TrEMBL record:
Record-given protein name: Uncharacterized protein
Length: 63
């Protein structure tokens, strides 16, 4: 499963390091204030609400 498919199938879940790496490689480093960076904690890293909404819209063909 590719990153795009993983993001669509697992939208809102903990983001594995391999997916964060793919996003970073595409030019979206997880710097402070990056629009796609959400909460992080003991379970791992999450996407922001804006990123989750964007992925949902893209998955529904709204982009």
């Amino acid at each position: 499963m590719g990153t795009r498919e993983w993001l669509t199938a697992n939208n809102g879940e903990v983001v594995p390091a391999s997916v964060v790496s793919e996003i970073t490689d595409a030019g979206g480093g997880p710097a402070a204030g990056a629009w796609w960076v959400g909460e992080s904690g003991a379970d791992g890293n999450f996407l922001s609400d804006a990123a989750i909404d964007w992925i949902e819209e893209a998955a529904n063909g709204e982009h």
